[in-house]
Amino acid sequence: PHSRPRHPGARTMLPLLLLLLATAHGLDKLQYVPTLASPSLGGLMTTSTFVLEQPRCVFTEAQGDAVIWLVVAVPEAIANFNNSVGPGTPERAFQSFPTRAPAYMTLNTTLLNYPCPKPPGELTVLRVGSETRCARDETRPTCNGPLPSPGPYRVKFLALEGSKPVAETAWSEPITLRTAQPPGSILAMGSGRSAGMIALTSILSILFAILLAGLVAMLVFWGSDACGGSSTFNKPEAVTVQRYNTHHVYDQTAARL
Asked: Where are the transmembrane segments (predicted)?
């Protein structure tokens, strides 16, 4: 028996059906798009972390007991993403991301931590990937662990009341992290300049050694010359000691002879 051919538009209709299903269950689709924090913020993006702006004044219609989650996913998981798969499940565990879990959920908090309006002067950001201790701890599936590769990644915020999704933002634009260069490539890139610097350093070292040797020789010569000019070695004068014999003292024995 021949299998019935699939309709060519079946795959394109699936995201629309998921959207209609979410709407039927009362899921509020928000127009907010998660964005990276200001570029002026230091450490905005590293090889395993990035910094997002907090979703302030976004979940205004959600109930007070709703919990806001951050969803981090690979781009391939966006089209068929299922909001009914809750945090902490094997399909949403950080430790299985992205090989066995195409997305994970982390940084859960209540609306109290996202007050509206934003207090002036307050730093309202979220660093994704900042927890290292729970990265391999499977008892912490919602760990905010370091991201395993440069990505790209896409994120959104999802509000849950219990296990029921009630509101979600749009997905962010793809976020690609920095890539660390291996030491070998860094040496190869700078090898030409390093060789030139080594040659220049060698020449300068030789010239400095010659100059230093000449300076030492001059100091020795000047020192010896100064010593020779200031010291005079004169032959000591002969000291003549004249012998006197007093006239009233004489050898009595000689006189008698």
From this structure: 197-222
> Are the C-beta atoms of 105 and 155 separated by less than 8 Å?
no
Question: DSSP of 9-47, one letter per residue?
Answer: THHHHHHHHHHHHHHHTT-EE------B--TTSTTSB-S
Instruction: Give the N- to C-terminal CA distance of the chain in Å, as an integer.
Output: 176
Give the residue among 187, 185, 151, 157 at the shortest CA–CA distance from 170: 157
Residue 153's nearest CA partner among 217, 112, 102, 116 is: 102
Is residue 255 over pLDDT 50?
Answer: no
Report yes or no: 128 and 151 within 8 Å, Cβ to Cβ. no
Alpha-carbon distance of 161 to 175, in angstroms, equals 28
The predicted model gives 119-136 an average pLDDT of: 92
Q: Which of 117, 105, 116, 118 is nearest to 159 (CA)?
A: 105
pTM exceeding the 0.85 threshold for the entire prediction: no
